[in-house]
DNA sequence: TACCAGGAGAAAA
DNA sequence: TTTTCTCATGGT
């Protein structure tokens, strides 16, 4: 029985880039803060904002909720969209504390937890799935713009497909393992950053020929 | 100078 | 219901 194309791509990426050990954070709560701050933003800028929170002893749900909006926005300034992100982060922390914090949330089923996260204004599907996978260690596949771009170029999925359809495609096409899902998403981001930026037709791409159905030959 | 970055929600059509 | 607009800094 032939290996699934999704596993073939994973193998190529892992061979090329090695383990990524995501998410770059010290605690599950820091993962969740980063997930909100990285929305449409380069991670380098997110790190600066998180460093500001840490410097001001504000890297906790209690401190974020207690901070005045203008103060929080100033700390988040390097990550861009700081007014919106200050509001979104406080929305999330209010919800997080109201549910009893991480230990309590860890007892929730994955569907309930996902639904709860999505009920927060400012937490959309990708942000919720980042949190579920990297903070709560649930077997949920994260779909982002890179995933869409790379796999549509390979001919493995449609760029117009909805988020839930894409998520289901990966979750059903791969062994349901948290470690695999973590590495796969991280490898996709790594590949997009180093090899996929300005040369989508690059013949030297590590994914060239990874899929028999590929139209462009590379991603 | 212009574009892009580990999106999401509100407003408009 | 679907599409478009807005939010904003920093690196390439």
The portion of residues assigned to helices is 55-70%
The major β-sheet equals: none
Radius of gyration: 18 Å
CATH fold node name of the domain at 28-135: Endonuclease III, domain 1
Q: Which CATH architecture of the domain at 28-135 would you pick?
A: Orthogonal Bundle
Per CATH, the class of the domain at 28-135 reads Mainly Alpha
Shape call = globular
Q: Into which percentage range does the β-strand content fall? A: under 5%
Which parts are unreliable, with pLDDT below 50 for 5 consecutive residues or more? 213-218
Describe the structure.
Helix 2 packs antiparallel against helix 9, helix 5 (69-76) crosses helix 6 and helix 8 (110-118) packs across helix 9. With 219 residues, the chain is mostly helical. Helices cover 59% and strands 0% of the residues. The chain has a domain at 28-135: Endonuclease III, domain 1. The protein binds a DNA duplex (13 and 12 nucleotides) through residues 22, 34-36, 38-46, 48, 77-85, 88, 121-127, 130, 142, 144-146, 185-186, 188-189, 192-193, 197.
Spell out the blueprint of helices and strands:
Elements: H1 5-17, H2 28-37, H3 43-55, H4 61-66, H5 69-76, H6 82-98, H7 101-105, H8 110-118, H9 125-135, H10 145-153, H11 163-173, H12 178-194
Helix pairs in contact: 1-12, 2-3, 2-9, 5-6, 8-9
The chain binds a DNA duplex (13 and 12 nucleotides) through residues 22, 34-36, 38-46, 48, 77-85, 88, 121-127, 130, 142, 144-146, 185-186, 188-189, 192-193, 197.
